[in-house]
Write a structure and sequence with these properties.
This protein is an alpha/beta fold. The chain has a single domain, classed as Ribonuclease H-like superfamily/Ribonuclease H (Nucleotidyltransferase, domain 5, 2-Layer Sandwich), CATH 3.30.420. Strands 1-4-3-2-5-6 form a six-stranded mixed sheet. Helix 6 packs across helix 7. The protein is globular. The model has no long low-confidence stretch (mean pLDDT 89).
């Protein structure tokens, strides 16, 4: 079914002001989080994700504050299942071939926002042919919705706000803070939740 045949309620098509979003309850991911730093941890995470058809997807890159300097490759890759969010520290452990196989598997849906930039960044770590990615902002744009970023989509589709306070922190740190870990996990989790909400509306 194509999105132009679907009549979604008008309240989903409107934009949200910063004030409206800030008045909403704050939510964060409260499930299991595993920070992956070793080969053994990575192998176990890959085993746990085996058979998953839908993964929330995101990356985090160390911000650049010097004018003219380009950002490096992502420091983190986050993947979320219904049960757990996995945070892979790519500056500690290289992008595993098992992860590359997931990123190239068309049978595993990876869903997030601005995924093209994330993919390009990850390809600086290792070569893979991306497949199975769905950009949530493409879905909302085709549906005529005015909300495209994670924060705005969460407000629109889920009725709560997520924190972006750790967005510009140093993601290349060897030891991430609890706030950074939860922020990273929340972005992957919310991507999966938004996919399910859009699917419920018949937009996917």
């Amino acid at each position: 079914m194509t999105t132009d045949t679907i009549d979604i309620p008008d309240n989903y098509r409107r934009s949200f002001s910063k004030e409206e979003i800030n008045a909403m309850p704050l939510r964060r991911y409260e499930g299991d989080i595993k920070v992956i730093r070793t080969e053994e941890q990575c192998v176990l995470a890959l085993e746990e994700m085996e058979g998953e058809a839908l993964l929330g997807f995101d990356t985090e890159t160390r911000p650049v504050f010097k004018k003219g300097k380009k950002p490096g490759p992502p420091s983190l890759l986050q993947l979320a299942t219904a049960r757990c969010a996995y945070v892979f520290q790519l500056n500690v452990l290289p992008l595993h071939q098992g992860l590359c196989r997931i990123l190239a598997n068309k049978r595993v849906t990876k869903t997030g926002v601005a995924v093209r930039d994330d993919i390009i960044g990850l390809q600086r770590h290792a070569r893979f042919k991306p497949s199975g990615f769905i950009d949530l902002s493409d879905v909302t744009a085709k549906a005529g919705m005015q909300t495209h970023g994670l924060r705005n989509m969460a407000a629109n589709l889920l009725g709560f706000r997520i924190s972006k306070s750790a967005q510009c922190s140093n993601w290349a740190k060897d030891q991430l803070s609890p706030q950074q870990v939860n922020y990273a996990a929340t972005d992957a989790w919310i991507s999966r939740e938004l996919y399910l909400a859009l699917d419920e509306l018949g937009l996917i």
